[in-house]
Design brief:
With 705 residues, the chain is mainly beta. The chain has eight helices and 33 strands.
Length: 705
């Protein structure tokens, strides 16, 4: 163990020695800035999302919350909705930006932003990749010629494969016939494509498809090629019609307590300086097969009212039990995989009809005051009865085939104060509410407070509000956070979340309580170096695992602490270096503490015009158990994220190349390799591979016309 720690320390010191930066470097490469923002800002929330909800099927769908990553927001034509898409801005800074645009009109230069209260050169540099400054374009008539001439086309095609081949693909033909459940029915490759067309902000068309590893392709159960398709046709901003979408879409109103389909980066406690709010109806090409909506949706705006409605019908994967007298579902399958005989048997087992509507009133008589309130109704119907397995902790789970949820939300904005809240009620009488406030006494200071109380009997599968759990039920909590910018070089963020679970939960035989706290410091050292320090601690209670075969278990305290040092250095105009060293310790009331170590060094290099960039990662890890596992954002191809979980002892290396084939065509090539020192097989079940090495390859072509 000591030898391993010494190796980690030596490597860490070498990384720091190689991360010296060039004094006097004046220019900042915005492509590198974008990489930095994705790795240190959005990645914190993404790592948290994956860690708290390991069943997240479509992590790339979270990018739909950050549309400015794909298309910068034109400040001169943006309204309040578009300005909310710019990441890294606090509520107070967005308000000051909106006030400036309303007061002075068009911005002629990016440097004008420096005259807005709360904006300095560091902030402007950070948000520069996500904004643009251009004239307000006059939109021509939508004739076939203009639709072709002024339309924009994006096409992404992606291929992924892991190696060596897992056991589930190696079963011989004779065993296929004897026991088909012991192998995957398809090939180990993963395929994905996405096509989008946009004509100004008026017309959008999208289509995507995905085949997971192990699923068939143009054969067997997947005769149509991909296992899953998503698509939409959307009209926007046409008179009183704000949006009309046919196909796949996402819906979120208020604080997402009544409905919040999809994944949200701000749904769990963390360092985010903003609080999620209403996003309305948005078209989607996400490949989340377990929670997506598909049908027709529309929003009409007739000041001061907005009215939205939608109808969705989908087939869901579920464990469907059939007998002579009835059919009922014991559980939903949310993985989205259709690889084995059993998974295929559960495919599209139950029909789900979802209808909903929202009416909101917005009053904003001045720049310093605004008020919004809305009422939401949701009706769900399933083609078979839901009858989950009976356990003490699942006493309040939904049973039946019909459910009605209603909700009321509000937002009040007065100068630097933003108050919000939502209350919801399910058909069985279960009740939940959330309320909070964001206060910015100065554009450089943001303070958040959120109270929540979700009843154990609140039954809503589409709720996605702020909380510790993946479902908004059986939870009470108080969350506070603060973000403070000191000058233009130092940002300090901290949060504290106190929570209780009044009823039983899985692996807890009594009501429990806990706390979570964190402190993070971002320090800009000179022009070219950024240091990130982070500390997090979480404490909660669960059953003592050392006691077996008992009807009731004694509760024990689970404590985890995380320490991180990260540094990014713009070593030259073409080279950015990143170092990350993380330690995680875990202890329980009955087990001695264990400690896990992780360290990595990244290099992002700008090359020639043809070979645009190269990104390299080398990592070492020594993580003894599940409780000390570490989730780390990893460089990946455009439009997706990779967040592998590190557990065990070994090393990992990753290389990604971005090649410009033509002016409008780019190619990404990515390869990763993990070598373990503590095992001779990797994975479990049908995913087991022999040996101590696991790797993967990714290729992606991106075309923009």
């Amino acid at each position: 163990m000591m030898k391993r720690i010494q190796t980690l320390c030596i490597f860490f010191m070498a990384c720091l020695a190689g991360s010296g930066y060039v004094n006097g470097q004046e220019t900042v490469d915005y492509d590198s800035v974008l990489i930095r923002l994705q790795s240190l800002q959005a990645s914190d929330n993404i790592e948290r999302l994956i860690e708290t909800n390991e069943t997240v099927e479509d992590i790339s769908s979270v990018l739909e919350e950050l549309p400015a990553l794909e298309k910068p927001v034109n400040l001169n034509s943006a309204g309040e909705i578009e300005l909310n898409q710019i990441p890294l801005l606090s509520h107070g800074q967005r308000k000051e930006l909106l006030n400036y645009l309303v007061t002075y009109g068009e911005i002629l230069s990016i440097y004008e932003l420096l005259s807005i209260p709360g904006f300095d050169s560091a902030l402007v540099t950070e948000i520069r990749p996500f904004i643009s400054i251009g004239p307000v374009l006059s939109i021509p008539r939508p004739t076939p010629k203009n639709l072709l001439k002024y339309g924009h086309h994006d096409m992404v095609v992606r291929y992924e494969q892991s190696f060596p081949t897992a056991e589930g693909y190696l079963t011989n033909d004779s065993l296929h016939l004897v026991n088909p459940g012991l192998f995957y029915s398809g090939t180990p490759q993963k395929y994905y494509f996405r096509y989008t067309y946009s004509w100004f902000d008026k017309i959008k068309i999208g289509l995507s498809g995905e085949k997971d590893p192990g699923e068939q392709f143009f054969s067997g159960a997947q005769s149509a090629g991909m296992d899953f398709y998503a698509g939409y046709f959307s009209l926007n901003n046409l008179g009183i019609l704000r949006n009309l979408t046919l196909g796949n879409f996402r819906v979120s109103f208020g604080q997402s307590l009544t409905i919040g389909s999809g994944q949200s980066l701000t749904a769990s406690p963390g360092f985010s300086g903003t609080v999620s709010g209403s996003n309305g109806i948005r078209p989607s090409t996400g490949t989340n097969e377990s929670s997506g909506l598909r049908g027709i949706a529309a929003t009409i705006k007739a000041k001061p009212f907005d009215a939205s409605g939608f109808i969705s019908y989908n087939r869901r994967d579920a464990n469907l039990v059939r007998n002579d007298s009835e059919r009922y579902v014991t559980a939903f399958n949310s993985s989205g995989y259709h690889r084995t005989v059993s998974e295929l048997a559960h495919r599209n087992s139950i029909g789900e009809l979802v209808c909903g509507a929202n009416v909101s009133l917005t009053v904003a008589p001045g720049q310093q005051f605004g008020f919004r309130t809305g009422i939401t109704g949701l009706y769900c119907h399933y083609s078979a009865m839901l009858r989950p397995a009976v356990h003490p902790y699942s006493r309040y789970n939904f049973q039946g085939s019909d459910n009605i949820i209603t909700g009321l939300d509000f937002q009040v904005r007065y100068r630097g104060l933003h108050i919000f809240g939502e209350a919801g009620r399910s058909m069985n009488g279960g009740f939940g509410w959330i309320a909070g406030a964001t206060y910015s006494p100065d554009p450089r200071v943001t303070i958040n407070m959120i109270c929540r109380n979700y009843g154990a009997d609140y039954q809503n599968p589409f709720s996605n509000a702020f909380g510790q759990s993946s479902i908004n039920a059986n939870e009470k909590g108080l969350f506070t956070s603060a973000n403070v910018s000191i000058g233009s070089r130092l940002v300090i963020s901290g949060y504290l979340d106190l929570f209780t679970f009044p009823w039983l939960r899985y692996r807890t035989d009594a009501s429990t309580s806990g706390s979570e706290a964190g402190l993070m410091i971002n320090w800009q050292v000179g022009r070219n170096a950024l240091i990130n320090l982070k500390f997090c601690q979480k404490q909660n209670n669960a059953n003592d695992e050392t006691i077996h075969n008992n009807t009731m278990h004694r509760l024990t305290c689970y404590l985890t602490r995380t320490y991180r040092f990260a540094m990014e250095v713009q070593a030259s105009e073409k080279v950015m270096l990143k170092t990350r060293f993380e330690v995680r310790e875990a202890a329980t009331g009955s087990h001695p503490g264990s400690i896990g170590y992780f360290i990595c060094q990244d290099a992002h290099i700008k090359l020639a015009k043809f070979l645009k960039t190269a990104t390299l990662r080398f990592a070492l890890f020594d993580i003894p158990g599940y409780d000390t596992r570490i989730y780390v954002y990893e460089p990946d191809v455009r439009f997706t994220f990779s967040v592998p979980v590190y557990q065990g002892r070994g090393m990992r290396t990753c290389l990604m190349l971005n090649v410009r084939l033509l002016k409008s065509v780019e190619l990404w090539l990515r390869g990763g390799l993990t070598k373990y020192d503590d095992r001779q097989e990797v994975g479990s079940g049908l995913d087991v591979t022999k040996g101590n090495i696991r790797g993967e390859l990714t290729g992606q072509v991106f075309i923009r016309l």
